[in-house]
Design goal:
By secondary structure, the protein is an all-alpha fold. Helices cover 71% and strands 0% of the residues.
């Protein structure tokens, strides 16, 4: 069954199609939710809530190309994750509208230096960023959203998204440099 047929059948309330949609996309949406949740349990809840919303609004999905169904579902899941975060007021306090980057810009390490760092260590470095910076970093660098899309999703200005990304990169560059300096001693 094609994505388009699957979505159309789900929109008509076909439970077999809904089950297929869930089985097909559950793991990918859960992995997406895990990037923005504080725990595995929260990620599972976010994913379940996203599917509930997906099933409720799938009639508004318009197929445009292969992969567009997952892209649309991922956007619903991301919105669910950020709506949840906004309710807890975690992001609002960290993502302030900043017009300038007032801090010193760190020199980003060379790719070869970063490649020598174990993935788990890099993941911990990203996870140690302040939540607002970490969120923008992941949306931009992992989920490939534009600053315009991030701004719309988080309810901030594009310049704030850009500034938060720059600050995240600066913080990571400093953390990586410190790690490499300590490793080479």
């Amino acid at each position: 069954m094609t994505e388009q047929e699957l979505a159309n059948r789900c929109a008509r309330g076909d439970n077999a199609a809904r089950r297929e949609l869930y089985i097909t996309y559950r793991a990918r949406l859960l992995a997406l939710c895990r990037r923005y949740a504080d725990s595995a349990a929260e990620a599972e809840d976010l994913m379940q809530d996203a599917f509930i919303k997906i099933f409720r609004v799938i009639g508004s999905f318009r197929w445009t190309r292969p992969g567009s169904l997952y892209s649309w579902m991922a956007r619903v899941a991301l919105n669910q994750a950020f709506d949840s975060a906004k309710k807890r007021r975690r992001l609002g306090q960290e993502l302030m509208d900043v017009e300038d980057i007032a801090e010193e810009t760190a020199v980003e390490p060379q790719y070869e230096m970063i490649a020598s760092i174990p993935f788990e260590v890099l993941q911990k470095m990203v996870d140690s960023l302040p939540e607002g910076y970490r969120t923008v970093f992941k949306l931009y660098c992992i989920d490939n959203l534009s600053h315009k899309e991030i701004a719309s999703l988080l309810g901030i200005k594009e310049k704030s998204s850009s500034s938060s990304l720059a600050k995240a990169r600066n913080a990571l560059a400093r953390t990586i440099k410190k790690y490499l300096d300590e490793k080479n001693q």
